[in-house]
Amino acid sequence: MEKKWIGIVIVCICLMMVTACGSGGDGDEDMNKKKPPISKEGKVIVTLSLKETQPFYEAAERKFEEKYPHIDLQIESFKKAGEKWQPGDMEKFKKSRNAALLAGTSADLIELSGVPVGNYVRKKLLMDMNEKLKQDQTLSQQDLHMNIIEALKIDGGLYTLPASFSLRTFIGDEAFMKQTGVTIDDEDWTWQQFEETARRMVELSEQDGKERRYAMTEQPAELTLVERLFDGYSQFVNHKDQTASFDSPAFIAMMEQVQKMYNDEVFTDKSTTGSRQLFYSSMIASPDDLIRIPYMLLSQPKLLQKPHAKGETGKARIVLPLELGIQAKSAVKEEAWTFISFLMSEDAQLLSERDGFSMLRSLNDKKLEDMKTQVKKGAYKLENGKLVQVTDKQFEQFKTVINTADNLQGLDVNVLSIIYDEIPFFFTGQKSATEVAKLIQNRVTTYLKE
């Protein structure tokens, strides 16, 4: 009888062990891991899902597989390069990506541009790459643009990384400032101070019967509002708590301030002749653009920090053309990280197909030094053939702009789409600011809770 009970106990213990293994418990995590997929050639398969085919990633794939012949990187694209997006295509893409991520069946590497990454982080669908980056001996932390990487972190974790970046900067007409004696302390200027300065400059432009100039031209009011919202997005949307505050006095005041700037013709959506614009919000996508764009716009441009709300940054806004994350349930996390690490290495960063600023400071610095040499030789020309004069002090400022950019808002294109839908009703006088703010608030709140 005693032997019978001992036998039953042993069977029960074995069953418990099998159950623990089968459910992925802490008893034996290694036994529950997925086996990496292997190609016919014996290579580890890593899949990369992109919204559409991109020449840089195709070139990177070839270079990567040369360097790591034991890995077969397979790129899956929803659309081919240049293929038209039909109505409903984007929604299909988002739904398929979300469904695959939730089911743990998505590609190992996923494009996560323009989506609220925090939502995926809370559901533990993405791998935290922070420790991988710290431990990676192939990358120099000192050479990487850590200001960009730090801006990407969510609650201390790093869930996406780009291969390049662009900057949204603010440019003013320094020649006109000197001529009129207007001084701007852009280190800490608010939108209210910008409005006061812009009004004064517009008034000064009409002195002695001269043609009126505007703070900005050919820009509709809704675009100006959204541009301001870009820089303070987190003030109105909290993806972590899934809440919004578009019905707040701050947003209503923003709407009314923008409208007043247009009513008083400080800003205008009309087309103007000649250089009648005093300020520009411009995308700078490469070191060359730091000279090319400002000097094509103005004879004596000045890079400024953007006006901003108190407590926010006015430094250049970071714009990421494409961010990649690693699926949390991927069976090839090590190999997936190897590819992301490769994208930030000099091998990939030197590929001619890469657009934007390099993630390596050394490559951006070298490009700026080459530009400085050309300028000093009188060989640096704009597209119109015009030679430019850029001081060493300006080149130092260019470096500062790149190395200190820290404004990266977790924008959600769906939220911005709702604002674009509703805001024209206010600017055309069909509804009050309060009414439109409530409509936006209701729609955004509904979306965030879906």
Quick synopsis:
By secondary structure, this protein is α+β, with helices and mostly antiparallel strands.
3D structure, described in words:
The protein starts with a helix and ends with a helix. It has 450 residues and is α+β, with helices and mostly antiparallel strands. The protein has helices spanning 2-22, 29-32, 55-67, 89-103, 117-122, 130-135, 146-152, 174-180, 191-205, 221-231, 249-263, 289-297, 333-343, 346-349, 361-377, 392-404, 413-422, 424-427, 433-448; strands at residues 44-52, 71-79, 109-111, 161-162, 164-173, 237-238, 243-244, 279-284, 301-304, 317-319, 323-326, 357-358. It is globular. It folds into two domains: 44-163 and 322-357, Periplasmic binding protein-like II (D-Maltodextrin-Binding Protein, domain 2), CATH 3.40.190.10; 167-319 and 369-448, Periplasmic binding protein-like II (D-Maltodextrin-Binding Protein, domain 2), CATH 3.40.190. It has a five-stranded mixed beta sheet with strand order 2-1-3-11-4, with helices on one face. Strands 5, 8, 9, 10 and 12 form a five-stranded antiparallel beta sheet that branches. It has a two-stranded antiparallel sheet with strand order 6-7. Helix 15 (361-377) runs antiparallel to helix 16 (392-404) and helix 17 runs antiparallel to helix 19.
